[in-house]
Amino acid sequence: MAVNKNALIRFQILDKCFRNTGRRYSLNDLLEEVNNALFDANPDSTGIKRRQLFDDISFMESEKGWSIPLYREKEGRNVFYRYEDSKFSINNQPLNELETEQLSHAISIISRFKGLPQFEWINDILFKINHAVVNKSKENNIVGFDNNPYLKGLEFMGELFNAILYKKVLELTYQGFNQKKSEKYIFHPYFLKEYNKRWFVFGHCEEMEMLANFPLDRIIKFEQRNKLFEESDIDFDEYFEDIIGVTRPEREVEKIILNFVPEQVPYILSKPIHGSQKKVKEDATGLIISIEVIPNYELETLILSFGNKVKVIAPVEFKEIILKKLKEATDLYLHE
What we know:
Elements: H1 5-19, E1 25-26, H2 27-41, H3 50-61, E2 70-75, E3 78-83, H4 97-110, H5 121-134, H6 157-165, E4 169-174, E5 183-195, E6 198-205, E7 210-215, E8 219-225, H7 236-239, E9 254-260, H8 265-270, E10 278-283, E11 286-293, H9 297-305, E12 310-314, H10 316-334
Antiparallel strand pairs: 1-3, 2-3, 4-5, 4-8, 5-6, 6-7, 9-11, 9-12, 10-11
Helix pairs in contact: 1-2, 4-5
C-alpha cells in the first residue's frame, strides 16, 4: 500500500460511508464518494478506479490496516457495504503502520530542528509513535507515559506552534486562577515550555511591556491580529539554564546547599534536581549537594516535596523561607 495523502483521504471517506446507517453504499456509490473527496482536496485529481477501491477495502480489512468488521449485503447483482458495528471507526483504533509511517515522515521534516535544545521533545514523539504500532487494542500496554490527558489548553498547542513558527501576533483572552474576570493581551509568542505536566507559552506582552508566560490551561481563546511581529533575541536555552520551572525572578544566581538523608541519596544522584548539581559531601549521614540557580517558587515547591528527606543548609534567607512554609504546614495539623 503506497503511503500518500490521498490514501488517508480515501480511508476516511470509506470509514464515514461504512458508519452511515442512513444510507446503503454500493461499490459505485463508494467510488463516487471517494472521488468527490479527492477532487475537493485537489481539483487536478483524476480520482481512482474500481481496482484501487478494492485494494483500499482489502487493506482496511487486513491486520496491517484496521481489521475493520465489514458486512457485505447482497441484493440482486448489487453488493452494499457497511460496518457490522455502526459504532466502529478507524479513528477509534490504535495507529497502524501506514498512519505511523505518515507521522514519522512528518516528524522527520520537523526533526531538522532537533539539534536545538528546545526541540528535544521530537525524540519523545518518535518513540511514542513507534510504541503506538505495538499497542493494539486487544493487547496490554507495555509502556506508560506520565501525561495528563485531561489538562485544559492542549488543544491550543498546534495553533500556538504555528503562530511562533510563522511569527503571528495574537490577542489572548486569559483568566488567572485568582482573577474574577478574563483580560485580553496583545501577545508576540516565542516559545512553548512544559513543566510539571503543564504547558506555558512565552512571549512579549504589549500591555505588560515585558516577556511574559501564560499557562495554556488558563487561556480561554486567542485570535490573530494584523500587527507587526516584535522579534526576540532571547536564547531560551540560556534563559532556563539558571532556574527550575518557568519563573525567572529579576535577581542573581545563588548557590543553594542541600543536605539529603541517606535513603534519598541514590535518587538524587541518579536524577539530579538541576544541571548545576554538584556533590559536596557524601557519607553515612547523607549527601550534601550544591546547585546554582535563581531561587523561585518552583524551587521552593520542589524542596518542600522532599518533606523530611532534605534540609536547606544555605543561604540563610532561602532556608528561612522553607522553614516558614514548613511551620505553616505543621500549623494546619496542630490547629484542627
